[in-house]
Amino acid sequence: MKWGIIGTGNMGQILIDAWMSSKVIDQEHLYITNRNISKAYAVKEKYPNIHVIDRAQDLAETADIIFICARPGDIFQLLIDIYSRLTKDDCLVSITSPYSVQRLEKLVPCQVARMIPSITNRALAGTTLFSFGASVRKETKGYLIQSSRIFSNPEIIPEDITRIASDIVSCGPAFFSYLAQQFIEAACQETAISKAQATQLMENMLIGYGKLLEDGHYSLPQLIEKVCVKGGVTGEGINVLEKETGQLFNHLISKTHAKYREDIEKISYQMLEG
């Protein structure tokens, strides 16, 4: 089975690294391209047996599974460009949330799936979100899910929770990294700890925290209960968090969903214009 990636930006490169580290596919079976082709050749320097193809149309003709890792605004024209090279046996996989599988199925003559990855897949961990079009064959669906299990935990989701699931799985690492960085900055401002030491302690805490959850020692509520001794220091900190965070995450979700709806509107407009 030949896999192809159109778009070797951040997420495209993360997927390639995850696939190569997990050995889910051999380098010889992976074909890549990018609008700025030098970026694709930069990936080949790291994995010399990967095939770089100069044009998206030629990649679509070569690969059996084509992963679209382009920006939402670029996808409509890209699909027009590769349409004639796709067959009913091919499977097109989009990694962007605004394009539903139902919308994609109206634009291409092949099987369609959506796979939303996470940067955590680079560590062969975390979740990969899947949605499948009605045209996807049972064998193709099974192949994609089984392949993703090698580098992640696949989760099939309905359309109506796509954005919030993506917020947690795909955006979550950035959100919580920002909060951790803010904690580090405040520690340096309020105490004599160095940024280097605060960063090291924070990173080690997060690694251990993840292991506690991974190994099933505690749930999230249990972690709070075990650390937060009544009347203790942690309790005082939790009180501050309860007061200060307020509707923080409600506002965050509101903003991500507003952007999601904006992207869908732009896509709809492109299709009408096209």
UniProtKB/TrEMBL annotation:
Residues 160-262 form the Pyrroline-5-carboxylate reductase dimerisation domain. NADP(+) binds at residues 6-11. Belongs to the pyrroline-5-carboxylate reductase family. Keywords: NADP. GO terms for biological process: L-proline biosynthetic process. This is Competence protein ComER. Coiled coil: none annotated. One of its GO terms (molecular function) is pyrroline-5-carboxylate reductase activity. It holds the Pfam family P5CR_dimer. InterPro entries: 6-PGluconate_DH-like_C_sf (IPR008927), NAD(P)-bd_dom_sf (IPR036291), P5C_Rdtase_cat_N (IPR028939), P5CR-like_CS (IPR053790), P5CR_dimer (IPR029036), Pyrroline-COOH_reductase (IPR000304). NCBIfam families: PRK07680.1. Residues 3-97 form the Pyrroline-5-carboxylate reductase catalytic N-terminal domain.
